Amino acid sequence: MTILSKIKGITAGVSFLLAFQISFTQDKYIDSLKAVLRNTTEPVERYHLLSGITNGFYRTGIGEDNVNDYLEMLRIASQLKNDSLIANSYNKIGDFYAFEKGDFNTALDYFFNGIPFAVKAKSQRWLSSFYLDISVVYYYLQNPVASIDFLKKAEANLPDAGHPEYKFLLLQLNFAYSVDYLFLHQPKNALSFLNVANETNMKLNFPVWDLYINAAFGNLYEQMDEKDLARVYFKKAVEGERNSHSPFGNLLFRSFYTVFLTDAGNYPESISQSKELLILGEQAQNDFVKFRAVGLLKNIFEKQRKYDSAYYYSKQELGLRDTLFNQERLNKIQAMAFNEELRTASEKNKRLETERERRQNIQYALIACGIIFFVIIFLLLSHSIIVTEKWISFFGVLGLLVVFEFINLVIHPTLAIVTHESPILMLVTLVVIASLLIPLHHRVEKWITEKMTEKNKKIRLDNARRTVKKLDANGNNT
């Protein structure tokens, strides 16, 4: 054995021990969360404990993917009437049915039903996540065009770069774009997205995503006819497969890898990989994974011209296709997508109408301010009109109310975002603004009153002088 091979062996051994240690630590952490959960009755605490138990599954490959936990989270969130937590729960349940069970109709039902809660919570994090997961479902339904459309919606709703989940969403987004373009056999378009996904995951260090990315790179370089590079990435993916316990992750990897092995003429290994995928699908009771596995086996045996075996798997593929893609299921999916389009259009129209009304109200407030300002200036400059303090006070209060309403109309959208539409916070903010306006109003009113008083005195004095002059003139005439 050469020194180089020894070093490689030692490195591989250390990597395995580190991965085992991380896995062991994570498992201990999850066990500790479960222990706390058993002794916790407070709904909010139970919700976050359940979330902690399940959070790592689609990131690190470690954790639990239990629909009963997700349903319990939804029950608690509904009890708390917390739209953001409800959206999170719908997302997790949808992920379970999409990626664990391959039940795309049920998954889309949860995704589409969860979107309105994300909208109400003004949560771009969950809105982006819903559209991302819907796009992945359409990818597996072999509709990359629809998948890319939903990815664009996910991209448009990404939270700010400072959001703690931004990088994870960015990772998913770019990876999803890359596999859609790989499906369309556009490896050059896929490459830029896959590079960004890889760079993002190097910062996040999610082991299970190394598997996805390496498998996608393998398929990409195979499509670019760079077989040696493809082999390197598939080898990395094989070494990292132990980090994935999800049928979705194994499906993605084995689908790409089996095609590579088949094209390379390595039929024994491609058959072995496909049969392992079939076993995984049977264990998970995931018809979609089984469908892809028997489809791969059919293609392998057809290439070998073993038509009896190919026919056997072809019949299984046809039966699973009827189960997964019958017209009734497809109609339901189309109906859900259409309803989402209607909801989106309705929300857009509401926003446009609300914005139009807001702009109109601002214009009305400006007109009212202008009229009041004009009246006050006219009264100040008038040389003949005497105004009492009551009228000054009336116009002052009216001006104060109009100015306050104008400020409220202008800042309301920003205030709603900053305070998350919390009635208490919005009220406190408006009270603070009013407390700043009132002293200013008093000063302006005092200044106007003084000016009006001086003007009134001047008018009365002028009137008195004119009256005296008239009386003197009348006396002289007599």
Explain the layout of strands and helices.
Layout: H1 3-38, H2 43-55, H3 67-80, H4 83-100, H5 104-120, H6 124-140, H7 144-156, H8 166-183, H9 187-204, H10 207-223, H11 227-240, H12 247-263, H13 267-284, H14 287-303, H15 307-324, H16 327-381, H17 389-419, H18 423-477
Shape: elongated
Please count the helical segments: 18
- The gyration radius over C-alpha positions equals 35 Å
Low-confidence stretches: 1-24
Helix % is over 70%
Instruction: Write down the secondary-structure element order.
Output: HHHHHHHHHHHHHHHHHH
Give the biggest beta sheet. Answer: none
What is the residue-mean pLDDT, rounded to a whole number? 81
Annotation, overall tally of beta strands: 0
Structural class estimated from helices and strands: mainly alpha
Strand content: under 5%
Distance between the termini: 142 Å
Question: Care to describe what's here?
Answer:
- The protein has about 475 residues and is mainly alpha-helical.
- It contains 18 helices and no strands.
- The termini are far apart.
- About 30% of the residues are buried.
Name the features:
mainly alpha, 478 residues, disordered N terminus, 85% helix
In short:
This protein is mostly helical and 478 residues long. Helices cover 85% and strands 0% of the residues.
